[in-house]
Every structure is written in structure tokens, then in C-alpha cells.
């Protein structure tokens, strides 16, 4: 699993300085604004879910950033969409087009979940497989290209085969 090239203390410093750039991998930069976007996404997608589910939502986004199959920035992953046969944009995260991402006000619990997720990637203690790329509420995906990983609360996480 790829590791972050910054100390946990940087997360605290980044709260005070908007211009700090953190190199996460050779082609991935993480900025304070990325952390804020992660917090908003986690809140919008899993704000009412257990802490561990919130961390896993963050891990899915980070795994996508590192994956060759998805864009390599937090912003691009969050805003990624495809166009269906009717010409309609279908976003990867439903909270983006419905406005709950833009209007999200993350709780302290969500902020802590994101900080812990990032710290675990940084210090090599994350136990989330890098192929955990998908989640949804209510039930697992019924796709031949993924397998079930774990369910926490009402969130179901899947691994790409």
C-alpha cells in the first residue's frame, strides 16, 4: 500500500496555513483544501454512520486517488462522473449532484475520522486494502467486478476484483 510522505503533525499545521502542499505519492499532492473536501464528502456520505464507516469512506477516496483507474487528485475523484446513454451526468458520489456535499458542515467526529484515516496511511498502520474502492448504503453492489469487503452500520464496502 502506498504511504503518505508527511508527518501527522502536518495535519495540525495545515489547519493554520492554506498554502502548504504535501506530497503523498510521486503524482499526488494533498492540500488543506483536500482535507476539507474529504471531511465534507465523508459527512455528506456517512455523517450519520459509525466512526469506523466514516474512516472507511475516507479510505475509499484515498485509495481511488492512488489507483491508476481513477483521477489522481481528491477534487477530481470527488467530482468524477460518467455520461449515461441519455446524456445525463452520473456522479460517482450521489452527494455531489444533490447538493449535500456542497452544503456539508462536518462534525468533529467526521473531522477526527478523516484525520485518523490520513494518519494511518501516513504511518503505515492502515489495514484497509488498496482495492477497497467502492461503498454504498443499504446493500452490497451486485457487480461481477467487485467482491464484498465489510459492512459497518448501513454502509457496505467492496473490493475491486
Keywords:
161 residues, alpha+beta, Arc Repressor Mutant, subunit A, globular, disordered N terminus
CATH homology-level superfamily: Cell wall hydrolase SleB, domain 1
Task: From the 3D structure, determine the CATH topology.
Answer: Arc Repressor Mutant, subunit A
Radius of gyration: 15 Å
Strand line-up of the largest beta sheet: 5-7-6
CATH architecture type:
Orthogonal Bundle
Beta strand count: 7
Poorly predicted tracts of residues: 1-27
Main β-sheet, in a few words?
A: 3 strands, antiparallel
Just give the CATH class: Mainly Alpha
Total of DSSP H or I helical runs spanning 4+ residues = 5
Q: Tell me what portion of residues adopts beta-strand conformation.
A: 15-25%
Cα separation of the termini: 16 Å
Q: Any idea how many domains?
A: 1
Please provide the ordered H/E string of secondary-structure elements.
HEEHHHEEHEEE
* Helical proportion, percent range: 25-40%
**Envelope shape:** globular
Q: Provide the structure class.
A: alpha+beta
Write up this protein.
This protein is α+β, with helices and mostly antiparallel strands and 161 residues long. It has a single domain (8-128), classed as Cell wall hydrolase SleB, domain 1 (Arc Repressor Mutant, subunit A), CATH 1.10.10.2520. 37% of the residues lie in helices and 21% in strands. It is built from 5 helices and 7 strands; from the N terminus they run αββαααββαβββ. The strands form 3 sheets. It has a 3-stranded antiparallel β-sheet, covered by helices on one side. It has a two-stranded antiparallel sheet with strand order 1-2. The two termini are 16 Å apart. Residues 1-27 have low confidence and may be disordered.
